[in-house]
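Instructor's aside before we start: the two examples that follow are unrelated to each other. I chose them only because their records fit on one page, so don't look for a connection. First example below.
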Amino acid sequence: MRKRGEKDHPSPVLAHDHVRDLLVERNGEVGAAGGAIGGAAGGGVPGSRGGASGGRTGGRLGARLFTRVTGLSRSLAVPCTDDAVARARDVAAPLLDEAALPRRDVASPLVLVGMVGAGAMGMNSAVVQLVWHPGRLDVTAHALEGIIDQRTASGAIDKLEEALTPFLRTG
């Protein structure tokens, strides 16, 4: 379902609904962590368990009802080398096993899907999809945004670009 103001941005690897589900689940995990801390402070171990359960449910529900998915793409002049791929995997914690990803054509030797924390203390999560082509890397990031746009997708791509700066080809 498309919400008002949602930016139509194609997802190169995963279906749009799959990207949204990944982001909603991540929001639930963050809610569970916060709920567990608050519940433990008020009720010990039982409070921690209850707080985690309530926080997870609230995080998922809030993400589904009050956010939209935004996306952004950028091409980087990064060749597909073992060192560059290892650095990208360090920054974008892999979400899916490469064998589980949809098949790509022969011109795309490598596809990675991961999660990047952007924003203050990396609290905003973005799903990044990296597709290497001969001589370049196409990075697409999608994130959940509420009423006030945090530009999380842009921040995630900036974080990847900064980490891959030593591998950028110039000229």
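Example two begins here.
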Amino acid sequence: MIIPQAHSHAKTSAALAIELGITSLPSLISCFLVEQLHPESWPAHSCLPPFTGHIKIFNSAAAMFVAQSNQSSIGSMHCEHICVVPSWWRGSACYDCVFVSTDNTQEGMLGMEVA
């Protein structure tokens, strides 16, 4: 019997690029961040250095929010589960979205953008 080992996530964009087989990933991250943080100067920065910062990978998140159009729940609260997992309930993969940290000074999801 073969027991699969737990998958350890990449901690740098270079390691994730190797894991995913996307060699240009660090440069793509740089472009994305400049486009999001400085849209007025995009695409003037054609020669950006590749992103070398630390990354964190989360497989899922729960977002709770007030949905004014949904009056049927208590206080119009709504919850969505966002999944990015290689196997969902021992079935096929589920890749809904990715979160990008844009402000490390904010707590949790307040410092993240959804892509």
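Confidence is low (pLDDT under 50) at residues 1-6.
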